[in-house]
Structure formats: structure tokens, C-alpha cells
Amino acid sequence: MTKKFIITNRTDKPMQAVITDNDTGNNVLQRELHPGCNELFVNDLHQGIYIIHLEDANHEIIYQQKIFKD
């Protein structure tokens, strides 16, 4: 996994990026994504498996993916 993600919010509304620890189910990182290009730094995450999902303003998940940190 890279040390940062570049996420482009192609809407005109803010969204949330949430990273969840796959083992515990705890949210370990949550950031607001403004319209346009956003950087999400993951340097502080420990080695393991995580799930990242993007939520719209109604907290509906619009994208989800499993990620791995070495």
C-alpha cells in the first residue's frame, strides 16, 4: 500500500473517506473529501488489512475496497 492515496471527488458536494481495520472493525481514519483532488495520508497505519470506503453526504457507501499495508 502506498503512503498516500489521491482521491478525486468528482461531485460538487463533500464526501467522507473512512478506513476501517479489517480485524477489529474500528474506524482508524476518517477525512472529508472536498470537490476536486484530495490527498489521504496513511503513514500512521500499522501493517495489516483495511477497508476503505467513500460515503456521500447521506452516509451511504458509494465505493468500497480492501487495501493492504506492508
Count helical runs. Answer: 0
Number of domains: 1
Regions with little confidence, pLDDT below 50 for 5+ residues: none
Q: What percentage of amino acids are in beta strands? A: over 45%
* Euclidean distance between termini CA atoms: 6 Å
Please, what is the average pLDDT?
92
- Roughly how much helix do the residues carry, as a percent range? under 10%
Looking at CATH, which topology would you report? Answer: Immunoglobulin-like
User: Structural class from helices and strands?
Assistant: mainly beta
Can you write the helix and strand succession as a string? EEEEEE
Strand order of the largest sheet: 3-2-5-6
Q: Number of DSSP strands?
A: 6
Description:
- The chain is built from no helices and 6 strands.
- The chain is mainly β.
- It has a single domain, classed as Immunoglobulin-like (Sandwich), CATH 2.60.40.
Write the topology of this structure.
Blueprint: E1 4-9, E2 15-21, E3 27-33, E4 36-41, E5 48-55, E6 61-69
Antiparallel strand pairs: 1-4, 2-3, 2-5, 5-6
Feature tags:
70 residues; mainly beta; Immunoglobulin-like; 4-stranded antiparallel β-sheet
Concise structural overview:
0% of the residues lie in helices and 61% in strands. It is an all-beta fold. A hairpin with a 5-residue loop joins strand 5 and strand 6.
